[in-house]
Amino acid sequence: MTSLTLVAHALTPALRGLVLGGDAEPDPAGVDAARELKIDADEVYAGPETAALRTAAALGLTPVVVPALRDRQYGEWSGRELEELLAASPEAVAAWLDRPHTAPPGGETENDVITRVADWLRDLTQADSSESAGSFGEAGRADSRGQDGEADAAGPIGSRGQTERRTVAAVVHPAVVRAAVLYVLDAPAESLRHVDVRPLSIVRLSAHTGTWSLTFG
Hints:
alpha/beta, 217 residues, 14% strand, single chain
């Protein structure tokens, strides 16, 4: 079983000002707030954004940077304020906001983001499945050596059995957290407006037999 904790990085001027894309530094207050959170994991990943890496450091984590966990790419609109874009190209931007399955010029659709995040989540479960398969193989060999058909309690079943939990954390842009939630719920890209991920939000997922679920409590 894999438990994944997704942490949205600290607030940035870009998030506050509705600037699309870019690589802004996080607010000092947000970094300080991150230091109050406690995240424990065996494996830690992060998106490539400065805010994600600074937030991870504030959490006391040393992540592996994963390009697939980057923010949505906005192409020609990257680094521009939404209000500015609406003033310059009101029809094109309004149509894009209404239809998130479309892409800004040279950028990604929401479905593109969901797909690459989903691929990363599948990679996590495949690694988990391979490890479990190895454990079951070891358990089978231990069982064949035991007496009366019972496995040795001190053998691989006891040390790496089916109940072993793999803990993973990822510090990412809020848009990546949202994409993961949409994927796990099998929700369409149009549902993104109903998933509001605030800075330093924490979302927990769990995977068992290759299927991801939201985890509460």
